[in-house]
Design a protein that fits this description.
This protein has a single domain (7-356), classed as Distorted Sandwich (Beta-galactosidase, Chain A, domain 5), CATH 2.70.98.10. With 359 residues, the protein is mainly β. The relative contact order is 0.17. A hairpin with a 5-residue loop joins strand 2 and strand 3 (34-38). The chain starts with 6 loop residues before the first strand and ends with a strand. The model has no long low-confidence stretch (mean pLDDT 96). Helices cover 2% and strands 40% of the residues. A nine-stranded antiparallel β-sheet has the order 11-12-13-14-29-23-22-17-20, with no helix packed on it. The longest helix is centred in the last third of the chain and has 6 residues, at 248-253.
């Protein structure tokens, strides 16, 4: 399945258990970076980028065969909606009416429910233009889908730019008041399989604050400083340096599973995070329009997932940087609003830029 030509290719990749066809879409840039996307779940199957010696490698956790993604174990590479992250008690009240959602994370609701958008087959329209090579994925979510009100029409566009940046643009409208929070759940390991964990990756997050949580990882409502805690990534820190901290925030999550409040929110596309793998030299720079980013370090991987090339994915095998609004925002009025009303357009973006570090 190796790609040799720039641009866009699209091939059949099987069917879902109920018979819906799935396609695999491959994007290439003039810089040599390659991305592959499934129409099932909007899953980013792979991202191939060069190391400091020019050797290409796949920096995402996942599977060799598209059929393995059915059911999307651990949301590997998936588009997440209608609401990313957790909603407390699997319920929220909007305009005086309570809506009950599917409880799929204890008593709470997680990532849109057990049949969220990560399980949908998205319509796909590919393009090649001045922006680069890309695919616009579209999905219609009916009123009552997993308990959410209103019909939502969403389009998520993946673009691989000529310079090799991977851009995600989210857009949605609704015919009744609802809540929405979309993200991408790719697991990165910049070593491209050379090391089976990300503990040596160096991470910077442009956030002075985070949202502390209860034991079930629902925010308490507080917005707290990262200073003096194991969550202080304002300067580059090895992920493994403090992941074993006995601080309550780390112990509760068994590592990092925290929403960071980005400093520059409200200024358009702005800096969120930087990840560097010192061994390979690969560097990822993340920018977003969203107010938060969830750092998750695969804390609950236990070796039961066998991924690409037969690799066994264990604890801390990868890291997610999920650009988002805050968890449980529908129940936390002090957080930035996630309400979408008729006549409004939900628009958010995230850009992943790849380069290499000399050191």
């Amino acid at each position: 399945m190796a790609l040799t030509l720039p641009g866009v290719t699209r091939v059949p990749a099987g069917r879902t258990p109920d018979g819906n066809p799935i396609d695999l879409i491959a994007l290439t840039s003039g810089s040599g970076i390659e991305a592959r996307i499934l129409t099932y779940g909007g899953i980013i199957v792979s991202l191939r980028t060069p190391d400091r010696d020019g050797q290409m490698g796949d920096i995402l956790l996942g599977f060799d065969e598209p059929a393995r993604y059915i059911g999307v174990p651990a949301y590997l590479g998936a588009l997440v909606g209608r609401y990313a992250n957790r909603i407390a008690g699997a319920a929220f009240t909007l305009d005086g009416r309570q809506y009950r959602l599917a409880a799929n994370n204890g008593r709470n609701h997680l990532h849109g429910g057990p049949r969220g958008w990560s399980h949908a087959v998205w319509r796909a329209a590919t393009f090649e233009d001045a922006r680069g090579a890309g695919v616009a994925l579209s999905h219609d979510s009916p009123d009552g889908d997993e308990g959410y009100p209103g019909r939502v029409r969403a389009t998520v566009t993946y673009t691989l730019t000529p310079a090799g940046a991977f851009v995600i643009d989210y857009e949605a409208t609704a015919d009744a008041p609802t809540v929405i929070n979309l993200t991408q759940h790719a697991y990165f390991n910049l070593s491209a399989g050379q090391v089976d964990h990300v503990l040596d990756h160096e991470l910077t997050i442009h956030a002075d604050r985070f949202t502390p949580t209860r034991e079930d990882l629902i925010p308490t409502g507080e917005i707290a400083p990262v200073a003096g805690t194991a969550l202080d990534f304002r300067t580059p820190q090895a992920i493994g340096a403090r992941i074993g901290s006995e601080e309550r925030a780390i112990a509760v999550a068994r590592g990092y599973d925290h929403n960071f409040v980005l400093n520059a929110y409200g200024t358009g596309l702005s800096p969120a995070a930087v990840v560097v793998d010192p061994a390979s030299g690969r560097r990822l720079v993340l920018s977003t329009t969203q107010p938060g980013v969830q750092l998750y370090t695969a804390n609950f991987f236990d070796g039961s997932i066998v991924g690409k090339g037969g690799a066994t994915y264990r604890r801390h095998a990868g890291l997610c940087l999920e650009t988002q609004h805050f968890p449980d925002s529908p129940n936390q009025p002090q957080f930035p609003s996630t309400v979408l009303r008729p006549g409004e357009v939900y628009r958010e973006s995230a850009t992943f830029e790849f380069s290499v570090s000399d050191r």
